[in-house]
Each structure stands twice: as structure tokens, then as C-alpha cells.
Amino acid sequence: MNDHVSRRNFLTGSALLAAASTVGLSGLFDLSKVLAAGPDDITTMLSIAATGKAFSVTHYYRALDKSTNAKFTAGQIAFLKAALESEQAHLEIYKFFFPMGTFDTVAAFATLTAFWETICVGVYVAATHSFAGLGQPELAALATQIAVVDGQHLALVKEIAGVFPNDVALAAPVYYNVSDALGALAPLSQWMVDGSVGFPGTMEKTAVSSPGKDAVVKAVGKSALLAKLPAPFNTAIAPFAKQGAAVAATMAATVAK
Length: 257
What we know:
Blueprint: H1 15-29, H2 42-64, H3 74-90, E1 95-96, H4 106-133, H5 137-160, H6 180-184, H7 186-194, E2 208-209, H8 213-220, H9 246-256
Antiparallel strand pairs: 1-2
Helix pairs in contact: 1-4, 2-3, 2-4, 3-5, 3-8, 4-5
């Protein structure tokens, strides 16, 4: 890590984003050394993805909680609700610790969130590659669907942090295998799960449970997520595995009209 980026500055303003841009995520966690960790298996990929999604749900839910000091705009709140709803649709479980100050300011929240969403995108890009290699094309497509949405979250939360949102031409291949995250993210997972002091600094004293579906539905209120794409697609937004040949048939029939 460059000397001019101190630990205590990681959660002030956009220091974490600046650090990631300067040295790259590989520099922050030395990911280059874990790219040869070996092939993934389906159980490992699903387990890591589950943990990541549970943390994301808890993170967005806390941002919307009344106890949060960060003053989000109405537009930002709308985004956070949509992000929370889509993350909840991905999964729910576990308890997590957060760095002190994460929810005190919009900048602090957005900085940590952008860092986390970068990890999520990288994990799902790697999952797409690994599922395809394992002969699971529908799971590969589903991982891609989730990666796309997490990429939207990343762009929007970077804008909230005051950073140019669409500054990449491709999603960063942070990991080659999903299992690479086990070693590369050991510092992150440690403070996240057991509350030990990590690179963000001192952690809160109390772990927070993932809120669960009912609490998420209440926090979101009226859904802003589409259930179906409008014409000319007219396609239900559902996991790829549930779509099958109906998508192509529907699209062909719509375009032919």
C-alpha cells in the first residue's frame, strides 16, 4: 500500500477508493499471489457467494436504519432500497461486524460499499468462468446476471462517494477462481466475522445480524425493481435457469410484430 494512504484515512471521504485506484485491489490484498489457488468446486463457490450476499444485505439495511447518522438524499435512499431488495433476493444469513464510523457519513458508507461491491463483482465474474468450466452453463449465466446488478450497485455507490462512476471498460477480474477469495480476503473476513481490528481500523463492539426477508421488505416499501422488461423484450426478470427457450421465443415473436 502506498505510504500516503494511512489506515485511519480509509473511512474518511473517498480515501479507500483512491487507494484502490492507486495501487489496485491486487495491491491492497496482494491478490496476484493467489491466482494459482486451483479450480473451484460448486459447493465452495455457493458458500462464498452466500456469505458475501448476506454481508451485502446487512450492510445496505444498516444504511437505511433510523440509527444511521449519514444524511442520504432522497435519490440515494431510493437506490439503497433497490440495492437492498436485490441483494436480499440473492441471500440472507450470518452476523457481521462493521468498522466504527461506517454509517456516520455518506462518504464513509459509500467508500466501504464501493470496496465491497468491487469484491462481489470479482467473485461473480470468477464464478461465471468456473461454472462454465464445470459444465454448468445455467449457473454460469446466473452468476453473470448477479455480477451485472452488483456492477450497477458499484457504479451508483461510487457516484454517491463523489467518484466518477463508470470508470472501467470491463469488470475487473479481481479473482481467477472464487476460492481465491478465501486466502486473499482473510483480513477482511476476519474483522467482518469476529470483530478484530483490521485494515479499516477499530470495529464496532456488537455484531449485527442479517435482517431477514421480512425486515428487508418493510425497509424497501414499494418495490422499484422491474418484474418484466418492457417491449420489445417483454422478458420476465428471473434466474436464467427458469427462462429456457421461452426467452428466445418471446423475443423473436415480439420483434417479428
